[in-house]
Automatic annotation (TrEMBL):
Stretches assigned to the Methyltransferase type domain: 53-158
Originating gene: Mettl13
Record's GO cellular component terms: cytoplasm
Signal peptide interval: none
InterPro entries (UniProt xref): De-COase2_CS, Lys/N-term_MeTrsfase_sf, Methyltransf_11, SAM-dependent_MTases_sf
Pfam families, alphabetized: Methyltransf_11, Spermine_synth
GO biological process: methylation
Organism: Ardeotis kori
Renumbered residue ranges of the record's region Disordered: 429-449
MF annotations from Gene Ontology: methyltransferase activity
Protein name: eEF1A lysine and N-terminal methyltransferase
Biased segments, Basic residues type: 435-444
Family: Belongs to the methyltransferase superfamily.
Length: 685
């Protein structure tokens, strides 16, 4: 403990280092890694004929190893500690005649201008720049000015550092403003994390003559796994990129030492574009008794199935890890913007990275299995990609589900893990790479006649919403009964289509604020308008308010399935304005006395949810709730009259009667859709 400074500021004190090296003796002290880790980077920027200055050399063996490996020999080492300089002069003697050790302060050097091709700094800047006090920053400016003075044009200042944010920012800003090219290398780890958990970086600042005016700054980063540098736009982005790598190293260190209590999530990005290529979740299963063969496994989620409950939710992944029987499972989701050759290529690409996430106690040279569902990586074909002024960038894609079924999905990329709309395809989608018969003339493939199974409701919350029509007044809720239905929120159109097709006397009005969605529903999801189906492009708030003023009590059912564009609110469906009391009173106004208001509520904020329910109870005397298992969705059935209350037995009977009427001969029906099951778990609030 006597070797540690009382405060970080002592790192810049000559007295501290004099005492430090006297107490430490002759044992070499290596700041931030040894020669084998640093050699690949240093070798790129130090030539054998270069004259090299090592500032703050201490008693590190780095210079000696560079000399002995013939990387370079003309090396001058300086330090402010007289004890360490004498120690190093004695240690080297005549062994390395071209290398010298000189007592000198880097803040005031005696060398002539442009005397060196390389200045090498291993931890000295970090020792000097211990804080952001004015006096410290002035000292660093003096250090940088001296280094700049003694370097030739084209020379390199190589600074080995832990890259604390304030240290990196200061170095980058100073030298980039002087017109130097700045590149940051991450040093490959030796695997020994006992001394330093955080990764080591080398700043490479190359001196150029300063060009008058505002010349563009050249800032680059080279991660440890690649040689090709990546250009970044600003100091802030460079600091952020380094911070990401530090966080990853810290995470890997923590995961290697102890089980993770909570699931850990991280993105691995494409080297060229910087876009996410893989999303990983690390799940530990304490209940699994470890053996040699079940320590660790990697699970590749098939493309298109990452939104399923088992793979897309924390609870689902926990269940997957337990059932898989591994102590630690890493799930890997594949991104739609990326191309993947197959399981073998994914395994080759990920093998090195996932081993950094291995659990403690993994036997040496243990082979880690890569597993999946069905043995493949799934099928995903992007049919259409566009941008809406209201909904942002979106895609329509066909994916292979569990088994032989294919599904068409609408995904808003601002919330890429949520399926906005989904429909089952009647015929399998063509596999990626299938030969096209005609060239593409537009940015998306031409729309073929839609092969959509309109009898199938993919979304469980849509099934529950349709089942809620059992609550409508009258002794027999039969589909032949004339109904007037308002649906707010079109999406792919599956909900209004089902009501239109299976309730033969229903007149359905759909309100959709985004005109792009009407085009998507019509072109890709088999939606069409007619005498009994009309779409109104309007804000649902305005449309309902107008109806309340001009045509009250005309709807048997009002259904809200509208998403919120504001992701900062803890409620993603509907937007908060749709559940405010004045607006809900307008909804009640347009309902018939025995009608039903059906609301898809997706709210993760418990307090906000309770507030919404309280407001609904104030407006509607009768309120039922149906929670969708495995999802956040909760379907609320609200009625304006308490006289319509029915017990579970009556609801079940009405649901069976309605289903029997809907399942007509010659009309397709999904056998898994049982209306009575949808209403079994309904609770009266």
């Amino acid at each position: 403990m006597a070797l540690l400074p009382r405060s970080p500021g002592e790192f810049g004190s000559a007295r501290y280092w004099e005492r430090f090296f006297r107490q430490r003796g002759r044992r070499p002290f290596e700041w931030y890694g040894a020669f084998p880790e640093l050699c690949p980077v240093l070798h790129r920027y130090i030539r054998s004929r270069d004259k090299v200055l090592v500032v703050g050399c201490g008693n590190s063996e780095l210079s000696e190893q560079m000399y002995d490996m013939r990387m370079c020999e003309d090396i001058v080492n300086i330090d402010i500690s007289d004890a360490v300089i004498r120690q190093m002069q004695e240690r080297n003697g005549n062994k390395r005649p071209k290398m010298s050790y000189v007592l000198m302060d880097v803040l005031q050097m005696d060398f002539p201008d442009a005397h060196f091709q390389v200045v090498l700094d291993k931890g000295t800047l970090d020792a000097v720049l211990t804080d952001e006090e004015e006096a410290t920053l002035a000292k660093v400016d003096k250090m940088f000015a001296e280094i700049s003075r003694v370097l030739q044009v084209g020379g390199r200042y190589l600074c080995v550092s832990l890259a604390q944010a304030h240290v990196l920012k200061k170095a980058v800003e100073y030298f980039s403003q002087e017109g130097w090219v700045v590149r940051v290398h991450q040093v490959a780890s030796s695997g020994d994390k006992q001394q330093f958990v955080l990764p080591v970086f080398v700043y490479v600042m190359t001196k150029f003559r300063k060009i008058p005016g505002s010349a563009p700054r050249i800032l680059e980063i080279c991660p440890e796994e690649q040689d090709k540098p990546m250009r970044v736009e600003s100091t802030e982005r460079l600091v952020a990129a380094v911070k990401d790598r530090q966080h990853y190293a810290l995470l890997c260190s923590q995961l290697s030492k102890s089980p993770c209590g909570e699931q850990v999530s991280l993105d691995l990005c494409d080297r060229e574009t910087g876009r996410p290529r893989y999303t990983l979740h690390v799940i530990d299963s304490p209940s699994v008794k470890p053996s040699r063969d079940n320590h660790f496994a990697i699970f590749i989620i098939p493309q298109g199935r990452e939104t399923e409950w088992l793979f897309g939710t924390e609870e689902g992944r926990r269940q997957l890890a337990t059932s898989a029987g591994f102590g630690r499972l890493v799930t890997v989701a594949l991104h739609r913007e990326q191309h993947y050759e197959g399981m073998a290529s994914i395994q080759a690409e990920l093998s090195g990275k996932v081993m950094e996430l291995a659990p403690p106690g993994l036997p040496a040279r243990q082979q880690v299995p890569f597993v999946s569902v069905g043995g493949g990586i799934g099928v995903r074909t992007v049919r259409h990609r566009d941008t809406s002024a209201l909904s942002g960038e979106y895609v329509v894609e066909d994916v292979k589900g569990d088994g032989t079924c294919y599904f068409r999905r609408l995904i808003f990329l601002r919330n890429r893990n949520v399926v906005q709309s989904e429909a089952r395809l009647l015929a399998p989608a063509p596999l990626p790479g299938e030969k096209k018969r005609r060239k593409e003339k537009k940015k998306s493939s031409p729309a073929e006649p839609p092969a959509i199974d309109k009898s199938y409701l993919c979304c469980e919350h849509h099934k529950a919403m349709v089942a809620g029509l059992c609550l409508l007044g009258g002794p027999d809720p039969l589909p032949g009964t004339p109904l007037v239905v308002l649906v707010v929120g079109l999406g792919g159109g599956s909900l209004p289509l089902f009501v239109h097709d299976y309730f033969s006397q229903a007149h359905v009005a759909v309100v959709e604020i985004d005109p792009s969605m009407l085009d998507v529903a019509t072109r890709w999801f088999g939606f069409s308008q007619g005498n009994r189906m009309q779409v109104h492009i309007s804000d649902g708030l305005d449309y309902v308010a107008k109806l309340a003023a001009e045509a009250p009590a005309q709807y048997d059912a009002v259904m809200f399935d509208v998403d919120s564009k504001d992701l900062t609110v803890g409620m993603s469906c509907p937007p908060p304005a749709f559940v405010e009391k004045p607006f809900l009173q307008k909804v009640k106004t347009i309902l018939k006395p025995e009608g039903v208001f059906v609301l898809n509520l997706v709210c993760r904020d418990a307090r906000l949810k309770e507030s919404v329910l309280a407001t609904l109870r104030e407006v509607f005397p009768l309120l039922y709730a149906r929670r969708i298992e495995g999802e956040v969705n909760e379907i609320l059935f609200c009625q304006p009259s308490p006289s319509g209350q029915r017990d579970p037995t009556e609801l079940g009977a009405r649901a069976q009667a309605l289903e029997g009427a809907l399942r007509q001969p010659g009309r397709p029906w999904d056998s898994s859709y049982v209306l009575a099951d949808m209403l079994q778990a309904v609770k009266i609030l």
